[in-house]
Write a structure and sequence with these properties.
Strand content: under 5%
Largest sheet: none
Number of helices: 3
Radius of gyration: 13 Å
Structural class: mainly alpha
Length: 64
């Protein structure tokens, strides 16, 4: 289906970004925008695959 293109560090950063977006959703009251951004970061972290990276041919994961 797709090849993983995110390194462990990149996945960790996306989890942190997701948490920040969810906190901002609660603090600012702009729930829809920050929740959508948070869910996008969460899905890419869980899947280990970023569609934007795939489109430009970039990867942070080393092949073994």
């Amino acid at each position: 289906m797709f090849k993983h293109n995110l390194s462990f560090l990149d996945i960790g950063i996306r989890y942190i970004v997701m948490m920040i977006f969810m906190i901002l959703a609660g603090v600012t009251g702009n729930v829809i925008l920050f929740t959508v951004l948070g869910v996008a970061a969460f899905l890419t972290a869980i899947l280990g695959w970023c569609p934007m990276y795939d489109m430009i041919g970039f990867r942070t994961r080393n092949e073994q």
